Amino acid sequence: MRRVPIVAIQGGLGNQLFQWFYAHGILDAPSFKIYTKYPQGPSVNLMREFGLSPIVERCSHCEQIFHEPIRPTIANLFPQILDRVWTIDILSRVLKKLGYFEGDTQSRANKNRFLKKRIVYVNGYFQKWNHAKQQQNWIDVELLPVLKSLHSELSKKLDLSEPYTVIHVRRGDYRLDKNPLAWMGCLADEYFIELAKEHPSNRIILLAEHKDEVEDLVFALKPSLVLDSSSTTPWETLAIMSGAMTFFGSNSSLSWWGAWMASHSGASTFLPSQWDMKRKFDPEDFLFPGCNARTPTWESMPNI
Length: 304
Fold this sequence. Notes:
By secondary structure, this protein is of the alpha/beta class. The strands form two sheets. Strands 8-7-6-9-10-11 form a six-stranded parallel sheet, with helices on one face. Helix 1 (13-25) packs across helix 11 (253-263), helix 6 crosses helix 10 (234-242) and helix 10 (234-242) runs parallel beside helix 11. 36% of the residues lie in helices and 15% in strands. The chain has eleven helices and eleven strands. 35% of the residues are buried.
């Protein structure tokens, strides 16, 4: 009997959505399993948790979820061993032939192609707009109804009936992670201020992880509404983004999904033309047709 493929789920909600729909793309079997890689050890990623429950309930393909237990079991030991063996070049070639694949988002050489062979286990971020495009039918079936329902609820609570512009600022753990190899870079206030000047709006909703990180931006733009993680969940944040008439996003996977979903409703969307300060990521993976690329203005890199 053919083994049901396992797909690792990790990162924040935006990353998880990329991984989730990538799982649909590698299917040559009627179902898949997912392995949630939480907790991940002493890092800023401890702030993240498995967040796909709303769409898991709508999916007929997800056969089982392996949540990582405290004590090693066969269910979680198998992926852990594969992740470590993959770092050895010779053995990684063998694993790939056996149906294991790890996608590296930061490698321009590795395009994370949809694999045509049998899959046993897949680990990676798979942040590419063309992957989402190929799975748009499943996005419409599983993700869109969740966002529409949430937006309807929030519309009454926050008065979202009139057209609005969303500015999504991603800083948070980007500033906390002091690893030079992982440093992404945060977009400066000037980036958003210039966009707002060029595309004025009577109603701006500013979304951030923490309000105290955007105080100067609030003073400059005087948005109608400022929301952060203390007042909205990641799902609610994404729902608000998806209903925007104009959307200014950050170098964030959640921003990308906000732009993608809003664009399908006819919104004007803007994302940075580079995804990180050191240009480790290929912007062509994120800048989908119809999305406006904006040259980024970065905050100064901290002394690390």
